[in-house]
Structures are given as C-alpha cells and as structure tokens.
C-alpha cells in the first residue's frame, strides 16, 4: 500500500502543465467559486462561534481553581473542533456539488492518455452526475465522522493524541481521495463496484488525499487550486490503474488498440 500512496502523491507532478495543455481551466470556474464560498463560510463560522462552543466546553470543569485558564483553553478547543469538523464537511460539500463539472475534466484526462475507452456504467446527464456525487460523499461523510469523532476525543490525551491525530489525517485523506477518484470511476463502475475498487486501491486514494488536505492549509490559494489539480492527479492515476488491471478497453479513433504512453 505504501507504494500506491507514493504513486498517488507523484500523480500531482505535472498537473498544472496538463491542465493548461488540455484547456481545462474553464471547467473549474464554478467549482472554485463553490470551494471559496464554502471555505470562507466555515472559517467565519469557526471565528464567530468558537467562543460560544468554548463556554459550553468550559462547563465540564467543576472546580473554581483553574476555571479561567480552562475557559481560555476551551475557546481554542471550540475553534479547533469547528475547524476540524468544518474541514470534513467542506471537502464533501465541495466534491459533491462539483461532480457535474469534474466528470468532464476526468473524461478529457482519460481521453488524452488512453483515447476512446469503453464506459460500462456511464451517466452523462448533469442530474445523474450530481446525484452520484451527493450519494458517494454522503456515504463517505458519515463513515468519516464515525471514525473521527472518537479519535478527536482521544487526540486530547497525551501520547495517544499523537497517534489519533495522525489517524484523523489519514482518514480524511482516504475519503477525499475516494471522492476524487470517483469522478473517473462513475464512467466505468456502478456504486458498489466503485467502493470495492477503492478498497483494493486505498493507497492511491490516501496519497491523493494527503496532498489535497495539506494544500487546504495554504491561505486563500488552497481553496482555489486544490480541487482542480487533485482531480486531474486522481484521474491520471485512476485510469492508469484501470488499464493495468485490464478493467478498461482502450482504442484509438480508428478502433484499433491504442499503445499507452502515459
């Protein structure tokens, strides 16, 4: 799996060049707008409501001594909780709403490397792509929260907290990579088949998601460039895996087998 994680990260190399070569920037205008508005909303929400959440958290401290210090710490804890949960929600909201715009991008990347391919379960309408994106991301959101909430509590325990924090990061990376890969998989697999495919290639999803999550911490620019380059990277690596595993049939425009030069 470690090798696949590295491959998922390496897929980001050259993405800017590929986006420009294929003229993909025009597809990203609305997804970037969705990303920026959603990101700014969650940051503002954390800023304005961290104090209120901090007050609620501070009530668990029953003693007089140290109450002021704990109240101050609680404010930061409240802000951190909102930011972490906001980051989880942010990813899935943006990926779900961007699905109809990212699927054509993934298809163009696939065509660039592999020419015409057979699409077994392709849904081409805007509504179907949006519905698939919402379904996949709702499923991933609930599963991610199921793992993250107990880990988030454990993260405040010394020593154990370090391990819990690392696991939180990897879980977030896995599910965001899953979402990025599904823009390609929706043309080739149905819902259940896509889940099985990602489980078998979870390293690739984690590698793609690691870079995605890290880039979000770049002020402002992170909300703008993260989705475009992560989708192109995921699409490039996903179709490569599909071809290696003989899960797609590649042909050129004349209908004869196409030699792959990825």
TrEMBL record:
Hey, what's the signal peptide range on this chain?
A: none
Question: Localized where?
Answer: Membrane
Alphabetical keyword list? Amino-acid biosynthesis, Cell inner membrane, Cell membrane, Membrane, Sulfate transport, Transmembrane, Transmembrane helix, Transport
Q: Where's it mainly located?
A: membrane
Segments crossing the lipid bilayer: 27-49, 69-90, 145-175, 210-234
Task: Please tell me whether the keyword rRNA-binding is annotated for this protein.
Answer: no
Which Gene Ontology cellular-component terms appear in the entry?
Answer: plasma membrane
Membrane-topology descriptor: Multi-pass membrane protein
Q: A GO biological process this protein is involved in?
A: sulfate assimilation
Q: Which InterPro entries match?
A: CysZ-like, CysZ/EI24
Q: Which Pfam families match?
A: EI24 (PF07264)
Q: Name one GO molecular function term.
A: high-affinity sulfate:proton symporter activity
**Domain of life of the native organism:** Bacteria
> Would the keyword Transmembrane helix be found if you checked this record's keyword annotation?
yes
Protein name, as recorded: EI24 domain-containing protein
